Amino acid sequence: MPPLLEMRAIAKAFPGVRALRGVDLTLHAGEVLALLGENGAGKSTLIKILCGAHRPDSGSIRLAGAEAAIRSPHDARRAGVAVIHQEFNLVPALSAAENIFLGRECTRAGFIAHGEQRRRAAELFARIGVAIDPGALCRDLTVAQQQVVEIARALADDARILVLDEPTAALSHHEVERLFTIIRDLQTHGIGVIYISHRLDEIFTLCDRIAVLRDGANVGECPVAGTTREQLIRLMVGRELTEEFPPRATRPGATRLAVRGLRRGRAVRDVSFEVRRGEVLALTGLVGAGRTETLRLIFGADARDAGEILLDGAPLRIRSPRDAIAAGIGLLTEDRKGQGLVLIHSVLENFALPNLDRFSRLGFVRGATERREFAEMTRSLRIKVSGPAQRARDLSGGNQQKVVLAKWLAKNCEVLLFDEPTRGVDVGAKFEIYTLINQLAAEGKAIVMVSSELPEVLGMADRILVLHEGRLTGEIADARTATQEQIMQLAVA
Questions:
Q1: Which residues, other chains included, contact 489 with Cβ-Cβ below 8 Å and sequence gap of 6+?
Q2: Could you write out the DSSP letters of every residue in 188-235?
Q3: Facing residues of 6 across strands?
Q4: Which residue, of 133, 162, 228, 479, is most buried by count of CB atoms within 10 Å of its CB?
């Protein structure tokens, strides 16, 4: 039988950027194909062409051996192609069943047959093997449940090709295992899956074959069996990475930031800790443990019920992010698109936002100074942009993350709160971010890093604090002696 999908010589250019340079991709029925590459390698552009969001400049697409003209998302949907993006495409105020059948509602005599929709939705959930109330509003569902609703919608459309873009970014370990079970079941029904992830452990666990892009071109294709992690990293970044985590000599100084009795409802309950100059302190725990909420309280993004924040021994009155920034505290948010960037603005404008006091004189922005510092930061962080006027929404996830980093580095904050700093970032960019964190620590900055990836916690932290249900359940004074099992025991305490 012909392949389920064949993309041949796909090319696409944007102003100032050649995103794809004659890319080929093949997917077979019942196969899980890993699509890998650094941020900006062309993965997102290729998928947007497949789902009809972009039109290729040249090249062809064949589905089950037949030429396909995919000019719009509607064409892709009719052709059996479904894409589940990192940011779900659901209407929060509608029920699970209503989202599944949105745009092709079940009707009777001109009226929506809500009972029929709920019945069919329940059948789809049963087929996937997950119990979800079809009448529950999507805003009340967990991230994992919302993902299942997206998969159910694809099945309702009789999708034969399913694309999953960073599907485990916000899932717990148990939820990831449940998702893998669902994917393996879809394989048995002949559905082909394109799986995009920067978590290489998942690739070796789930996928059958790997296709790698670099700078908009194919650089390798191989079966998972017999491929090593080192070979895969070399294909992705085009160079040897002998270590995943750069070495650093740890010499923490005096206490820089102190938190005493921080509390907000049941999310954060009596949390106290200190961070020293030159120290990387990791906050970890399961999803919902209160890690992000703790950082938001320190930054003034949420109001605290109780607690005290001290900088160099002096109490701070932080009632808003403005107060935190003025005190020299910066927050790299977990949700870079929703909270870290203004996506419709240019990368230059995003970079300048917290730094306007330095870039302005007498109420006017000094454009030359602003552009010069942005150019310097672009070079040092290796941010791939077509120019300072490029909109933030058009960057890859990793380059968006670097823009957020750049604005806080330009602010020269003394305390940096990094919430999942490498989420959705490729292995090469991860190493660059790790190196940057080490440089900041060497300069005497105090760094609090939240991470769900235990190898990252063990590889980067000097000290580890573990949270469970809003409370600190343990401290590991020397991260070099810690194990993943030790952290997990504290995380479920």
A1: none
A2: HTT-EEEEE-S-HHHHHHH-SEEEEEETTEEEEEEESTT--HHHHHHH
A3: 26, 62
A4: 162
5-237 shares its CATH topology with 255-491: yes
Coil/strand/helix, residue 329: strand
* φ/ψ (deg, to 5) at 327: -85, -5
**C-alpha R_g of the chain:** 24
State pLDDT tens for residues 11-36: 999 877 788 999 999 999 999 999 99
408: enclosing H helix or E strand: helix 397-411
Residues 6 or more apart whose CB falls under 8 angstroms from that of 89 comprise 150
Model confidence pTM above 0.70: no
Q: Which two tokens stand for residue 424?
A: 């959705």
pLDDT value for 239: 65
pLDDT score, position 94: 94
Question: Residue 139: is it exposed, middle or buried by C-beta count within 10 angstroms (0-12/13-18/19+)?
Answer: exposed
Residue 192: phi and psi, rounded to 5, are -90, 135
Q: Is 154 helix (H, G, I), strand (E, B) or coil?
A: helix
Token digits of residue 70: 């995919």
pLDDT lower than 50: segments of the chain: none
Q: Is 11 exposed, middle or buried (0-12, 13-18, 19+ CB in 10 A)?
A: middle
**Considering only CA atoms, which of 169, 112, 178 is closest in space to residue 145?**
178
User: What number does CATH give the domain 5-237?
Assistant: 3.40.50.300
Kindly report the CA angle at 424 between 93 and 296, in degrees rounded to 5?
65
Burial (CB count within 10 angstroms: exposed 0-12, middle 13-18, buried 19+), residue 105: middle
pLDDT at 57: 95
Angstrom distances, CA of residue 233 to CA of 39, 199, 237, 344, 423: 13, 11, 6, 33, 17
Give the Cα separation of 403 and 408 in Å (integer).
Answer: 9
CA–CA distance, 208 with 56 (Å, rounded to integer)? 27
Superfamily of domain 255-491: P-loop containing nucleotide triphosphate hydrolases (3.40.50.300)
pLDDT in the model for residue 54: 94
β-pairing, 192-196 vs 32-36, is parallel
Token digits for 129?
Answer: 């093997």
